[in-house]
């Protein structure tokens, strides 16, 4: 017995055996009804902390960049604040502190990421975007980026280097310890990588740029997976065709057998789906097209994707000049995105798959930016049951305006004609009770006619509350 006591590992084993016996006896002797009634179904918790990282703006001379944030009041706490600073252990402050319920905005022209940290009610339902608008060579220029949160895994689907002057990945580490990153690239002829994309170290409170053109210059499309083996990073991808034909590529949902992409703009031009499969087996995908006139039933498309590679599908024929939503269903997990290039101009825009807006926790999207001199359209897609959303404008003082209801018939894409006050600084998009799942995007336009520029921002749910998983009858609940 003395030997066992002196051996800490043996002692730990005895404790584990005793705890297991205790839990087993309790589970066997408790009445079945009591056990079922006592099992927790999860805990609903208010979001009380949020971090976002906005990369240095790209737009050249004459461009105006700003970061906008909004967290609706009512997150369960009156306290809370938002602060922004350049990325660094002691970064320079950006703008004034913000509070919940008040649209926040700050101009930015630095060469480092801007990190926003929010706590309390200022974190509940927080959304942060960065916009850059201006003119270049007589044509308008507009980009929009949803500033990403640090993550261990981020997916993108983008055009390849054959159509781009530059494809560049921005990685920011906002934490106190270094992060190690691997970047997986799936091109049309299979995986592509180099020493520069393996085991990349991003020091604490630092950032790096990774040019990807040399790896994808001979491919039409590419999927990019940013993953960390230690730490986490905020990842952003910038694609540039020309000075005015450039924009941020939004991240897309992780690999799955079904995706929904909305926000494909109206108007003529090149519209194409980008898809990639990751495993050793090829994927066969069916693509349904939903416009403002309903599903294009005679134009269901099929796309074959080689193993661990990407492929593209031109869809402007069946879409025409109408706004559209794509529903992609495949027999293998894939990642997808969409690219748009307007006819007769350099204007480009990218959109991606997103989770639907659906209650009770994910039924709201927040649109914080409303740059002066631009126009905004919302695009809604209901690929299943019909949907209904309520759009509420928010003024500079945080006061909500008149809510406006929008009906989305089943299997339709809708771009509503909203009556929004000029004082609008943010929008709340809420799915109504009884609505089917709705997918949404914001179209931001700068300029008009042949020189206009369009940016697309898929709208993700902005939850103020989340459900935490339950833990019961588990040793993990007792022994860390």
What do you see in this structure?
This protein is mainly beta and 480 residues long. It folds into two domains: 2-38; 49-466, no CATH class. Helix content is 9%, strand content 48%. It is built from five helices and 34 strands. The chain has helices at 2-6, 8-29, 32-38, 213-216, 316-319; strands at 43-46, 49-54, 64-70, 80-86, 104-107, 114-120, 127-136, 139-146, 153-159, 166-173, 179-187, 190-192, 200-202, 206-211, 221-230, 234-240, 246-249, 256-264, 269-277, 283-291, 294-295, 301-305, 310-314, 324-342, 348-352, 364-367, 374-382, 387-395, 404-408, 412-414, 424-431, 439-446, 453-459, 465-468. The strands form eight sheets. Strands 18, 19, 20, 21, 22, 23, 24 and 25 form an eight-stranded antiparallel sheet that branches. A hairpin with a 6-residue loop joins strand 32 and strand 33. The protein starts with a helix and ends in a 12-residue tail after the last strand.
| Distance between the first and last residues' Cα | 26 Å
| Number of alpha- plus pi-helical segments | 5
Q: Rg, please?
A: 24 Å
Count of separate structural domains: 2
Structural class: mainly beta
Average residue pLDDT: 87
What topology does this entry show?
Blueprint lengths: L1 H5 L1 H22 L2 H7 L4 E4 L2 E6 L9 E7 L9 E7 L17 E4 L6 E7 L6 E10 L2 E8 L6 E7 L6 E8 L5 E9 L2 E3 L7 E3 L3 E6 L1 H4 L4 E10 L3 E7 L5 E4 L6 E9 L4 E9 L5 E9 L2 E2 L5 E5 L4 E5 L1 H4 L4 E19 L5 E5 L11 E4 L6 E9 L4 E9 L8 E5 L3 E3 L9 E8 L7 E8 L6 E7 L5 E4 L12
Antiparallel strand pairs: 1-34, 2-6, 3-5, 3-7, 4-6, 7-8, 9-15, 10-14, 10-16, 11-12, 11-13, 11-15, 16-17, 18-24, 19-23, 19-24, 20-21, 20-22, 20-24, 24-25, 26-31, 27-30, 27-32, 28-29, 28-31, 32-33
